Amino acid sequence: MKILITGITGMVGSHLADFILSNHPDHEIHGLIRWRSPIDNIRAIIHKIHLHEGDLHDLNSIILLLDEVKPDRIFHLAAQSYVTFSFRVPVDTLNTNIIGTANLLDAIRIAGIDPLVHICSSSEVYGQVTEDEVPIKESNPFRPASPYAVSKVGEDMLGFQYFISYGIKTFRTRMFTHTGARRGDVFAESAFAKQIAEIEAGIKQNPMRVGNLESIRTFADVRDAVKAYWLLLEKCTPGEVYNIGGNRTMKIGEMLDVLKGFAKCRIEHKVDTALLRPSDVTLQIPDISKFQKETGWEPVIPLEKTLEDLLDYQRKKINK
Amino acid sequence: MKILITGITGMVGSHLADFILSNHPDHEIHGLIRWRSPIDNIRAIIHKIHLHEGDLHDLNSIILLLDEVKPDRIFHLAAQSYVTFSFRVPVDTLNTNIIGTANLLDAIRIAGIDPLVHICSSSEVYGQVTEDEVPIKESNPFRPASPYAVSKVGEDMLGFQYFISYGIKTFRTRMFTHTGARRGDVFAESAFAKQIAEIEAGIKQNPMRVGNLESIRTFADVRDAVKAYWLLLEKCTPGEVYNIGGNRTMKIGEMLDVLKGFAKCRIEHKVDTALLRPSDVTLQIPDISKFQKETGWEPVIPLEKTLEDLLDYQRKKINK
Q: End-to-end alpha-carbon separation of chain B, Å?
């Protein structure tokens, strides 16, 4: 089986490649990379996978790629995925996440192939919910609170529309917060872990800088997340959408406390208003019963393990 | 008061300018036009309005425009608005309708002005509904069945997000089918009227070509529609979304019969499969009670008058 992963150099894409190599070593893994994509996350497996240069902004390159590879399954993970940054680059975010997805879906039509396609939407589409609206079901209304969230509504709806209009077998997920090693430094938990590792190493002083600690999130380990994505294309229904997320719900501040518990020295923190978003969402608790019913998936990695591994990842990056 | 209309050269934009000139002659009307925009629809009023060259794809031109005009109200009507064409040009449609709207909203922030902004979403966002889901409320789910519909979901959600994130006073409408004189020839009712006028004039032979006649639509006159848009910014609530539409519901085929009733000779028609969309929506009946409660708006122009005026418009175009 031939599998194409867009965004293979990212946290989720690289963990997905790891998962497939470990569990289905007979499958061929192809990845789309852009000129100058950092490849740190896939350096260890680079001889076992096939990388193809191209860019989702350029329809031509995607058609050429699909003609060449003819993938049976596509995991479309490439995105501008940093919510806070999307307020600075709204048009780039909309372009990459919406137009990029349109190009991929159009290229599938043009190449005349019939793959299973994972479209990676996000829990951010739900935005601010009230207490009587949680846990969040797939039928909750869209209230996007960032350009990123708007872009994921667009990507999600394109996945639906190309299924309705052309029968392209799209499977949409709205994944809630997921993290672990290789998480980009711009995301809260990774920024926390990085600063702790730097303070441990003596290259940074207390206090570390943090943003909004009051938001409530349900956390999953990225390794559980990629297992869910694999099961999605194995067992779910094309055209449908699924909420997926972990089972540990807490405030960002509590997650910070867990991380601090692993630190080798005393860590102090201070809220930096520059890290607060113009609008934030605060009650992201998923109802994942639809997905569980079709797949039997359960998150199994405890959050403590996830955060410990993330901290170790940041420590190793410093010592490189 | 200074009013900016994007899309002023279109059917709706030009009728809105007519409405404001007739009812509020003391207001200043400004319009955004692109290089080579056809100006037939505004030729009669061109000396009474202020036109500014620019393009929604180019953020710079919109910032310059807003800095110069500093409008109190903006009606954002510019769009790639032809559903069938959007299947051929999905990326252009997404670009114009989503990125173009992001540029307008960003330009408002950058210019530091605080206008009332009409964001023109569409009933197409609802897509296919079941019989127990009509009449369609604002809370109905999104099921976009065309790239145009996806683009309007994106535009709609941007209007919401920029209100939530920055307090920009956006008022979103989801207008159902509206038509009349100046309707582009690519839309069903205008294509019908044009062909009838051509057969009457002897420059085309029977039968005329038609697409899907089974879809059910609720029709409004464009002159009632622009009155609704005016009331929207006068009386409604920023951040909210409103369904608006007429009160005459029928199949496209019945609308064709009304048009044929005005013809000066016998008209035959034939379904042309090339005019059928890859996916179509068939049960677009609005619940407009939210909008009516806040504005008291009622559609008053009978559909027969609308269609007669549309046919006269097509007859006059032939004789030009």
A: 36
Q: Give me the residue spans of the domains in chain A.
A: 2-178+220-244, 183-217+248-285+301-319
Contact list in A for residue B154 (CB cut-off 8 A) is 94, 98, 150, 153-154, 157
Domain range A183-217+248-285+301-319, CATH class: alpha beta
Enter the tokens of residue B30.
């400004």
pLDDT reading at B112 higher than 90: yes
Q: Which residues of A touch B170 (CB under 8 A)?
A: none
Q: By C-alpha distance, which of A116, A132, A223, A220 is closest to A175?
A: A220
ipTM of the prediction? 0.91
User: Is the separation of the CB atoms in A53 and B85 below 8 Å?
Assistant: no
Backbone torsions φ then ψ of A4, nearest 5 degrees: -105, 130
Residue B167 has pLDDT above 80, yes or no: yes
Residue A53, both tokens: 């240069």
Answer yes or no: are the C-beta atoms of A8 and A14 closer than 8 Å: yes
Would you place residue A320 in the very low, low, confident or very high pLDDT band (cuts 50, 70, 90)? confident
Q: Which CATH architecture has domain B183-217+248-284+301-319?
A: Alpha-Beta Complex (3.90)
Q: Mark out chain A residues that contact chain B at CB-CB < 8 A.
A: 59, 87, 90-91, 94-95, 98-99, 102-103, 106, 127-128, 139, 141-147, 149-150, 153-154, 157-158, 160-161, 164-166, 278-279
- For residues A2 and A233, is the Cβ–Cβ distance under 8 A? no
Q: The tokens of A166 are what?
A: 């052309």
What's the CATH code, domain A2-178+220-244? Answer: 3.40.50.720
**Phi, psi at B213, each rounded to 5°:** -95, -5
User: What is this structure's pTM?
Assistant: 0.94
* Contact residues on chain A for B150, CB-CB shorter than 8 A: 154, 157-158, 161
Best to test chain B binding among A152, A157, A172 (most B CBs inside 10 Å):
A157
CATH T-level topology, domain B2-178+219-244: Rossmann fold (3.40.50)
